[in-house]
Structure formats: C-alpha cells, structure tokens
Amino acid sequence: MIDISESxxxxxxxxxxxxxxxxxxxxxxPAPPGLRGTSPEQAVLRHGVTVSGVILAAAVVLxxxxxxxxxxxxxxxxxISWIPALDVRIHLGVDGISLPLLVLxxxxxxxxxxxxYFKMPAGPSPKAFVALLLVLESGTLATFAVLDLLLFFxxxxxxxxxxxxxxxxxxxxxxxxxxxxxVLYTLLGSVVMLLGLLLVGLKAGTFDMxxxxxxxxxSLTASVQVVAVLAIGLGLAVKTPMFPLHSWLPDAHTAAPxxxxxLLAGVLLKxxxxxxxxxxxxxxxxGMHTFAPYLAAFAxxxxxxxxxxxxxxxxxxxxxxxxxxxxxxxxGHMGFVLLGIATLTPTGVNGALFANIxxxxxxxxxxxxxxxxxxxxxxxxxDTLAKGTGAALYGRAPRLGALLAFGAVASLGLPGLAxxxxxMLAMFGAFEPAEGLSRPAFLTFMAVAGFGTxxxxxxxxxxxxxxxxxxxxxxxxxxxxxxVQTYEFAAWSPxxxxxxxxxxxxxxxxxxxxxxxxxxxxxxx
Length: 525
Hints:
Layout: H1 6-27, H2 40-65, E1 75-83, E2 88-94, H3 99-118, H4 126-145, H5 149-158, H6 160-170, H7 175-204, H8 209-215, H9 222-239, H10 248-255, H11 258-283, H12 285-314, H13 322-342, H14 346-377, H15 382-386, H16 393-396, H17 398-411, H18 418-431, H19 439-468, H20 476-479, H21 486-504, H22 507-521
Helix pairs in contact: 1-2, 1-4, 2-3, 2-4, 3-4, 3-11, 3-14, 3-21, 4-5, 4-6, 5-7, 6-7, 7-9, 7-10, 8-11, 9-11, 9-12, 10-13, 11-13, 11-14, 12-13, 12-19, 13-14, 13-18, 13-19, 14-17, 14-18, 14-21, 14-22, 17-19, 18-19, 18-21
C-alpha cells in the first residue's frame, strides 16, 4: 500500500469512470498528423490502447492507495447533488467488494484493446470499434463504482448499446439475430428491475445505496422487500445469466468477435451478481431470505444444465461449436456464484465474489484462445478441428495447446488455480447456510453442485483430448499451424499469471472481500 491523499483517490476514481467516455469522444475525431503512423486506422487503434492503458494504470494506483486495513470502508468517495428534485446524487466510492472488479474490468479492456491493435476484427471503421469499446468500459466501471440506485441503473444500461453494435457489426454468422436477442432479453429484465429500484427508493425515502445498506431493510416492510427482490432480481438474473433466463448468452458469445466474447464473459456477467451482493443482500435482507432457497435451486439447476449441454457439444458428431461450449460453461460457473450468494453467509458470499474474479480471468483467457483457433483453422466447430482423431494441437502448436489445456484445467477447478476457491467456498457456504434456511435443502444443493464439478471436469477433459491430442497429419502443409505470436503472449500472459497467483495466494482477494462482506451482511453495523 502507498500513501495517497483522499483527494487524489477521488480524482483517480472519477478518471476511471469518466476517462473512457472522454477517450471514446476523442476516438471519433480526426487523428493529429503526427500521431497517424502508417494509417488513420492504426492511429485510432493505438488511441484505444493508450486510453485503456491509462485507465488500467489509474486502477492499479487506486488499488495500491486503497487502505487495506479498512476494506469495509467506502474510500475515494465523491458525493455531489445531481437531480435535487429526486434526491439523485453523483455518489462514487470503492470498497473491498468493488475494487477487484474495477481492476479486472480495466485489465480485460486494456488486453482487448492491445489484442485488437494487432488483430482488428473484420468490419466497419476502427473509429467506431474503439469508441464503442471505451463506452462499454466506462459503463461497466461505473456500475461497480456508483452508490446511487438510479445511477446504478443508468450505468447498468449503458453497456447494452455498445455491446449490441460490437456483436451486430463485427460479429460472425447470425450476429444480428444474436445482438437483438441480447438487447431484448436484458432490456425487458431491466424494465422490471427499474420498477423494483424505484419501489425501494421511494419507500425508503432515499436512493443512496450506503444509507440503504446501513438501514438494512428496517424502513421497508417484508412485503415490499419480497416484491423488490422479485423485480430487481429478475433484471439481475438475466444479466448473470441464471437458468432459465440464459438463452441469449450462447448465441451472443457464438456470434461476437473475440474481444466481445472476452468482455461479455469477463465483466458484463459480473454486473448481475454484483447487483445481488451490493443491492439485494444488504437492502432487502428479509426478501432475500424468502427467495434464497429458490435462488439456490435455480443455481444448481444451471450448474447441471450448463455442464450437460457442454458435454453434449463436446461429443464426436455433435457439430459442437467451441465458443458455444464455453458460453454454456459460463451458465454453470455463474451457478456457483449464485449458490454462494443464496447461502446468505460470509463464506458463501466470499466464495461468490472470488468465483466472479476467477471466472473473468479464466473464461477471458479461454475466449482469447478460441479466437486464436478460429484465426488459424477458420472454424471453431470441434468436429472440424478434430477430424476424427483429434486436432493434435500439442504437436502442431505446442504453446497454444498447452495454454488451452491450462485454461481447461483452471476452469474445472483444479486446486492451486483460481477456479478452485470460489466453487469450494460456495459449497462450504451451502453446507452451513444462514440461520432460518433449511439445512437439508442446502445440503442437497451442495451435493448437486458437487456432481456438477464432476460433469465440468468430464466435458473439459473431452475438449482437451479432442483438440489438443490426436495424430499429427503426415502432410507437412496440413500440419503447419502458427504457434502463439508475440502480441498474443502479451495479451494472455497476465491472465495466466493472475490465475496462478489467485489460486496459490487466495488470501489477497479474500482479505479484501471478507471484512466488506461481514459488514454488508450485518447491515453496516
């Protein structure tokens, strides 16, 4: 930790939230002659790398200046009146729950901008691509930093339009239908969520999330809390996505360009689960207690459903798409996050937050790797890649094969890597749920989730066998596949390193989240 004044911390957080918007506006302007390089397109792509790099640097400095002795305290806070008639305020702040998500978002956006500089997806002008990427970053970062319910909703919705265009304009086959499905699902869920947020704010007399969390639902009747959880939870569940509201996700991932898939899985899905932790757990505790068993039931159903869908896609002859398989795997992994939240215990919620970060790192890496396979083979269809005996990636491109195997074993929760801790803590939370919840029911949920981990291992090992192993073709021309390039190594190595560090040293992340979670569940007391 370094000693940074509160005013500098406030500036850094404001820069992190608003900086990408300014960068997006600048990306649409003509490049100064001295910065054009070989072409205007190269200049705007370099601009995206520069802006996202500055935001990442600001996020890292913010994390270093964060008071790690008081992670439950809101830090770098800004509180300015915006709409006095509605008592809506520009209220920003960061604690041990939101800080890791801010850094993860800034990191993944920078890596996506860096990757795009060397491998720009085919489509319209790079100007629009960079501007949309930065608007998407700003909306996501704002979601994790704002402390006002209506500002949260605005930030939550900001990401829809840029992601729609990233899929519809730079995506692959079926991109327009997938983009519309993504927008319609999330927009319909958000309309209901807005009604729930308004209900909470009007009944409690404030939209301030810190004040509402401290009140811990005392100003809301039990019936109001139940209705609020149902309405707000529906919107958050669509974005998570929770089974059975997940059907937009596989289509969106399959059609999206590589960087779109990385950001969609790495950070956008986290907005839904973050809303459960930041809003519903502390503000509507009685409502969450009522719905917790149902949330857990849907969570474990999603774990099994996602794993079975992946297992079916991985089988020979199924014409399974590797991007689609990883998308379905996200349904299962986010099921563990929801199960941890549903336990209403510090152990379970800490596990959910850890699994959020682990999923962002690991699945982001996997989508980068699948994008590389698409570039080399022209397809992500597993049968096309394997051609009966297997794609023999170990022999053709050993470093790429090793990275894919690493991503797979990390995703299945191998001890020593980041994916293990979140799932384990979520199941530990289910073993001893919060007081008043049915322990036999949650023990059943734990057992089902444990079976889901076996299915996860099964389909990921099948993928490794079919894509990484196999007989190397005798024809030299057919066997030649480019291994990991320098720019790919630069974009992927931070994710690999952080996956290992988080797995071997989980106390770094848990030390941030646990005090904040303890205070959150206690209602700020």
